[in-house]
Amino acid sequence: MASEAYDDLLDRYERISNIRSAAGVLSWDQEVMMPDGGTPARSAQRSALSATSHELLVEEDMEETLGEAESADLTDEQAAVVREIRRQYDRAARVPTELVAEISQTTSEALPVWKEAKAEDDFETFAPVLEDLLDLKREYAEHIDSSRPPYEVLFEDYEPYLGLDTAERILDRLREELVPLIDDVGESDVELAQPFTGTFDADAQEALARDALDTLGYDWDRGRLDTAPHPFSTGTQFDARVTTRFDEEDPLGALTSTIHEFGHATYTLGLPDEEYGSPLGESRNLSVHESQSRLWENHVGRSQPFWSLFLPTIKERFSGLGDVTARDAYEAANRVYDDNLIRVEADELTYHMHIVLRFEIERALIEGDLDVREVPQAWNDKMDEYLGIRPDTDAEGCLQDIHWSHGSFGYFPTYSLGSVLAAQLYASADEAIDDLDGDIESGEFDTLHAWLTANVHSHGQRHTTPDLIEEATGEAFTADYFLDHAAEKYGALYEL
After folding, report:
1. Best CA proximity match to 265, nearest among 298, 289, 284, 230
2. Same domain, 314 and 239
3. What are the distances in angstroms from CA 438 to CA 54, 75, 433, 443?
4. Per-residue b/e over 97-119, b at no fewer than 16 CB within 10 Å?
5. CB neighbours (10 Å) of residue 180?
6. In DSSP terms, which residues pair with 240 in a beta bridge?
7. What CATH number should be reported for the domain holding residue 225?
């Protein structure tokens, strides 16, 4: 009977997983393909799917089925499946289905409002929607655990095992150690090359983005490339799609964005096919997911070996770059811009100040310490404090990210956690692979794909985040590798 209970639990979860996947396709379509007028119907569709998956997860006999499965003689993999479904059930069972449906509908309706507000540089258009989403997410957190700060509860939707205290510790350390390094870079007399100036046709940039995906080993049979206002990746191990965007004056922005989203997709595609519909066929969480995107973006895509490999392809796509060297391109890809306002275009160092800013603002919003109408001023003041610049417009400031329109409060810290983990994982891969730099320079990415699949992707949610890190690297989670990487790399570039 215990075995039957486990099989029943897995069948139930597979139905839930399929509904969630279908909702993901509808969300992708809304951001990429759907006509502007489709929002009312799409909001209702997504709300219905969210409510249905929630109802299936918390239906009356799920608790009994879970209990019977937990008492069974399970393998390690089966125990992990039950652990993860239990975690989801315990949170979901406290939240009314009506609230889940309302959050889904409100976020779907918020997306076009955010797009319009950003395009018109009009925060006041978005402010009422943001207030509604904050109220809904506070209510959601209150249902789950009223004894803890709501932001801590929301953070666990994206990283359930490291804890907000770990995120705070990591962010504090990054702020303490990166700010002096950023200051030293700013005071350096070294001028890095800037070969990619002028205008670069968007169609040629799209062709280059496809070249990059080909080079890195993207599986086009299970994926596609499109454009979106804010780049993202979504899908399953059978269908993992990426998006990017193009600025004709910034070809590196589209390229690094595409490589970043490729990192997400290659994690998704590396999940075991045979575990589809089970927690063992789903990614661990957003911290680990961001580690994969940041690893490919920064440790591969911004590396000297990659530019030695890829520069000839860029020269084929764009004229006027005949004299550019691989060193020039490497410097351009790693230039620290002290006047950059946009997170997704930021270098490896200042990027984390963008995250700290968002973390502090959204936590203050959720905790009720900051009024929505105060966001533009608070944002600009923190940009001034952390980076020494002030946005001229809200489109370049507090409206630049899509996350709050999704109701994704608590997501931003995972970008820094992922960056830190990326460095730790890459160091372990570099130690395990005989000549990783040589492989990258020769366009041989199979060894890195294989290492990441074996040590991260193939496990799905078998391990908790700390255990996955220990299994993959032999050490507990640490920022040491990232900070050493940053000091060594930028110390050499800027002769510090």
Report:
1. 289
2. yes
3. 48, 40, 10, 9
4. bebbbbbbbbbbbbbbbbbebbe
5. 9
6. 235
7. 1.10.1370.30
The tens digit of pLDDT for each residue in 188-206 reads 999 999 999 999 999 999 9
User: Percent of the chain scored above 70 by pLDDT?
Assistant: 100
CA dihedral 385, 411, 370, 143 (to 10 degrees): -160
Confidence of residue 157 (pLDDT cuts 50, 70, 90): very high
Same domain, 92 and 211: no
Whether residues 309 and 393 share a domain: the answer is yes
pTM above 0.85, yes or no: yes
Instruction: Judge whether 254 and 246 are in contact, CB under 8 Å.
Output: yes
72 and 213 belong to one structural domain: no
DSSP bridge pairs for 233: 242
pLDDT tens digits for 359-409? 999 999 999 999 999 999 999 999 999 999 999 999 999 999 999 999 999
Q: Does residue 142 form part of some domain?
A: no
* Pair 207, 277 in one domain: yes
pLDDT at 3: 81
User: Could you give the number of structural domains in the chain?
Assistant: 2
Answer yes or no: is 93 within a domain: yes
Does 231 share its domain with 88?
no
pLDDT of residue 337: 86
Residue 234 β-bridge partners: 241
N-terminal to C-terminal alpha carbon distance within the chain: 66
pLDDT for residue 247 is more than 80: yes
List the catalytic residue out of 68, 84, 159, 261: 261
Query: Which pLDDT value is given to residue 1?
Result: 54
367 carries an active-site annotation: no
* Averaged pLDDT, 158-164: 97
70 backbone dihedrals φ, ψ, rounded to 5°? -65, -30
Q: Are residues 359 and 476 in the same domain?
A: yes
User: Is residue 69 located within the same domain as residue 206?
Assistant: no
**C-alpha to C-alpha distance for 371 and 374, rounded to whole angstroms:** 5
Range of the domain at 326: 164-493
Estimate the crossing angle of helix 76-92 against helix 39-58, to 10 degrees.
Answer: 120
Q: What is the secondary structure of 158-194 as a DSSP string? A: T-TTT-HHHHHHHHHHHHHHHHHHHHHHHH-------
Residue 421 near residue 288 (C-beta atoms within 8 A): yes
Cβ neighbours of 472 (radius 10 Å): 22
Could you tell me if residue 118 is inside a domain?
A: no
132-148 confidence digits (pLDDT tens): 999 999 999 999 999 99
Contact between 74 and 3 (Cβ < 8 Å):
no
Decide if 63 is inside a domain: yes
Q: Where are the alpha helices (DSSP H) in 71-201?
A: 76-92, 97-120, 123-144, 150-155, 164-187
Count of alpha carbons within 13 Å of 386, Cβ hemisphere only? Answer: 28
Burial class of residue 224, CB neighbours in 10 A (0-12, 13-18, 19+)? middle
